[in-house]
Fold this sequence. Notes:
This protein is an alpha+beta fold. The chain contains one helix and four strands; from the N terminus they run αββββ. The protein has a domain at about 35-74.
Amino acid sequence: MQTIVLFLAATLLTTSQDGPAIRDYFEGGASQPAVALCNLIDEAVNGSSRTCRYDCGKMLSIDARLVCPFVLPE
């Protein structure tokens, strides 16, 4: 039982060096995150496609049966 507990503790306390790097959202220590969100402002259905327009100037074309995402990462 002690062997299992020690193994689990060692597994939880050690960090993996092979894991993916964490993205730096603050780009050099800035106070605001680098990732911004675009808010949905309009959508239009044209035949079998739906066009979603966002306040940051982006447009997204999806199938007409789907719903536009309310926010997008910029």
